Amino acid sequence: MEETFIPTKYRLQSQATGRIFDDTGWMLDAPGEEKPALIRAIYANKLLQLRDESMGFYRFADWLPIRRILKGSSAPVTYKSEGLASALGLSNLWITFSGWWPEKGVNMNTCSFKETEAYSVCGRLDPERKQVLVVASAGNTARAFAKVCSDNNIPLLLCVPHDYINALWFDAPLNDCVKLAVTAFGSDYFDAIHLSNLVTQCEGYLAEGGAKNVARRDGMGTTTLSAVTTIGRIPDYYFQAVGSGTGAIAAWEANLRLIDDGRFGDNKMKLMVSQNAPFLPIYEAWKAGSRAMLPYNDDLAREHVSEIDAKVLSNRKPPYPITGGLYDAMCDAGGDVLKATNLEARHAKELFFEKEGIDIYAASAIATASLKNAVEEGLVEKDALIMLNITGGGEELFKRSHELYFLEPSLLFGITPSLQEVREGLDTLQWK
Fold first, then answer.
1. Angle at the Cα of 408 (from 407 to 409), degrees rounded to 5?
2. CB atoms within 10 A of CB 242
3. I need a labelling partner for 45 at 20 to 30 A (CA). Which of 7, 36, 299, 338 fits?
4. CA-atom Rg of the chain in angstroms
């Protein structure tokens, strides 16, 4: 399949100036522009043509900035809810599920929609590039990139807080091309990002780019493509829990492409994004009407992160203020930033399992709880077409039938290591 695939044709556009330019490599910013802004892929195919289901995630290749197909992928699956919809009094609720649920035809064996990012980002990567990809993560992203890179022999260094490394479980031992660097006990995702920034200052290491990488966003946008091509039109509301908000930006961008396609309607989904209280940096900024993130004391932020169930939502520096980022997406599409507590999410997780028959992650439970609250508060119409993005689930189902293997750290650092300490650590690693 890889040998016959023709790389997707696209160009890149600055969201600050509108300037369109060629992707000459691993571009994360518009060349020659000083103002921080996301760049966006502009695809040659304005009409989305789905590939065969056997292509897995790559059935959406028309709108993915990729040069090759990697093995082992699965696409998100969208279905109309009956059980949860009835419990909430909704007549047109659709669930887009990413995770492990073979009964529904979704087989992401890391159980998270972060696989959509990894298969897209790694599919964009030139196999001739002799650099190690560097990814910072609070857990699920690391597991997804580790699986994809291990299966496809792509050198990868993960930067993860020590408290979260239990999330790095797999159903088989990993290829030695994947290595793990951790920050000390008590550190958080922001500290892992800091470590990854130091690593990418060293020769031979390539920053994955996070929200700035068009492949990451357009990979995540396949959840919206799954929903719209299954339903036949663009939803009225989009519900998702957010840490960085990159998934919601991706949904908005996919929505705009679908409007240009012309076959699915011309409305913009209202973005109903939610955070896990008490860690609420996006919520607080949005409610204050502020493009800038509000001040957040480091120690208080770490304390709040320690309290939340959905650790994957613990991004202190999200792509919210940047031009083309979450603030702009919310202002353009409409919607609101919501919040839910651990207790509300735990009840929502139980409700989802009871009504839909599958376990879901804490972040997905935050989204479900926020939907339940929004219905009860009258924020959405009960006959509205609603897309609920369940970004991870099926882990309990998966673990019951698979032996697990854990990735052990290759490098251990303090919470805020120096560049010299990082260089010395990297010098001890052996890459094939």
1. 120
2. 28
3. 36
4. 20
Tens-digit pLDDT profile for residues 82-128: 999 999 999 999 999 999 999 999 999 999 999 999 999 999 999 88
* Burial of 343: CB neighbours in 10 Å, binned 0-12, 13-18, 19+: exposed
Domain ranges of the chain: 77-108+215-398, 132-203+402-432
The CATH fold of domain 132-203+402-432: Rossmann fold (3.40.50)
* Look-up of token digits 């520096």: 317
Report the amino acid identity of residue 141. T
Domain 77-108+215-398 has CATH 3.40.640.10: no
Token digits of residue 318? 């999200």
List residues bridging with 272 in a β-sheet.
239, 336
Average pLDDT over residues 28-40: 96
Residue spans of beta strands (DSSP E) within 100-246: 100-101, 106-107, 132-136, 156-161, 169-170, 178-183, 205-207, 237-241
Q: What is the pLDDT of residue 326?
A: 98
Q: What gap in Å lies between CA 344 and CA 122, rounded to an integer?
A: 36
- Tokens describing residue 339: 């919040």
> What does the alpha-carbon distance between residue 157 and residue 151 come to, in Å, rounded to a whole number?
15
Q: How many CB atoms lie under 10 A from the CB of residue 170?
A: 19
Distance CA 100, CA 360 (A): 10
Residue 368 structure tokens: 């479900």
